[in-house]
Automatic annotation (TrEMBL):
Active site: H451
Binding-site list for FAD: K58, G122, D319, M325, L326, A327, H328
Protein name: Dihydrolipoyl dehydrogenase
Gene3D superfamilies: 3.30.390.30, FAD/NAD(P)-binding domain (3.50.50.60)
SUPFAM superfamilies: FAD/NAD(P)-binding domain (SSF51905), FAD/NAD-linked reductases, dimerisation (C-terminal) domain (SSF55424)
Domain Pyridine nucleotide-disulphide oxidoreductase dimerisation: 353-462
Coiled coil: none
InterPro entries: Class-I_Pyr_Nuc-Dis_Oxidored, FAD/NAD-bd_sf, FAD/NAD-binding_dom, FAD/NAD-linked_Rdtase_dimer_sf, Lipoamide_DH, Pyr_nuc-diS_OxRdtase, Pyr_nucl-diS_OxRdtase_dimer, Pyr_OxRdtase_I_AS
Any one GO molecular function term: flavin adenine dinucleotide binding
Amino acid sequence: MADKFDVIVIGAGPGGYVAAIRAAQMGLKTACVEKWVNKEGKTVHGGTCLNVGCIPSKALLETSHKFVEARDHFAEVGIEVDEPKANIAKMLEFKNSVINKNVGGISALFKANGVTSLEGKGKVTSSTEVEVTDHDGNATTYTADNIVIAAGSVPVEIPPTPLTDDLIVTSTGALEFTEVPKRLGVIGAGVIGLELGSVWKRLGAEVTVLEAMDSFLPMVDSAIAKETQKLLKKQGLDIKLGARVTGSEVKDSEVVVKYTDGDGEQEMTFDKLIVCVGRRPYTQGVIADGVGVELDERGFIFVDDQCRTNVPNVYAIGDCVRGPMLAHKASEEGVMVADIIAGHKAEMNYDVIPSVIYTSPEVAWVGMTEQDAKTKGIEVKTGSFPFSANGRALANNAPEGMAKIIADAETDRILGMHIVSQHAGELIAQGVIAMEFGSSAEDLALTCYAHPSTSEAIHEAALAVEGHAIHMANRKKR
């Protein structure tokens, strides 16, 4: 038997590494197990988010956006440059440097906070034991008073499109294309599909997105979703709704995809195909038979509101439990669990978790949509404001989009905020903070905002809830 710890965390993604650091800060002897190795065979922390997800995709989104700005929009504001060229190899080099800096930062934080890093695959073998199998196949059992499972998730694969090296890939492979495909197919018009489709469209690919659902971004307020679809179509993304993929075939380094839509059987040929139909919890092999931790039919671990499993002193957080598969949700659960283990009272407000799609413009939301409220029988009032009437957005040459606030008709409490605009992912924090403190739309309307700023669109949307937006015509008078 090896060392004993107060806490052992399985997984060093955004949920696991945060939980481990927080536990160590609370004075608990903590270890974190991670099996991920890079191409050099070195264990790396950060999980999907830092290595093949949030961070590298944002690096490519930002560089490709800058390329489009230089190519298509610099001249509009008086900057004349020779026609820019996209150096894909250099972009990938930048992306990898960003990954390395983030991963190295976590390793440094582990050392600074006294977290023991255990390299290998972790498996819960009892309520107090974790078996760690290193990369050479040697197993060591560690004991702990508390165990936190933060094993994350992996992309869903579908039978009609079996993965084929460098031709039919998941989001991971789509971050490694060494050249721009002429014809790119994307299965799934969700967050990941739209982001990756945007990257390669900006760099010159003809992109077709096949979405099985008949509605576009159903989790977003319908007005914002409609505006987003219009803007993405204008950029050249061909989004086909109600297109259910039924099969694929690789022919001469091309992918022939078959799908059905309202007009019957269809077929398209692509040079590359990205499968972005969601993610599933990575729990297989993480919990030994007989431990008793309950899972549902999809592999998610059952937990209560404070992430306790049915087995005492065993917790689970992040993508392997209920709720949105978001890095920041996992991190906050990690903090909550560490605080609980340390003997503090802690909880998390699951009604106020923001979501962002990092297309251009960005799409961000928190709380209810107007359609959610109607389904729940809640009477609401709404206010919206276009960024085309915002001085800073016009000065930024980014007038696209709108902000919308949904408030309870009786209490005026803010129930949701939805934005499509430049930097919407930053602006949405206003809605998160307002809702966390139970603010009313009037609270935002009475707040003094800096001018000129794109945040003023939020102010105007709050004023518009009562029909008093200043910079819009045809508004109600008191």
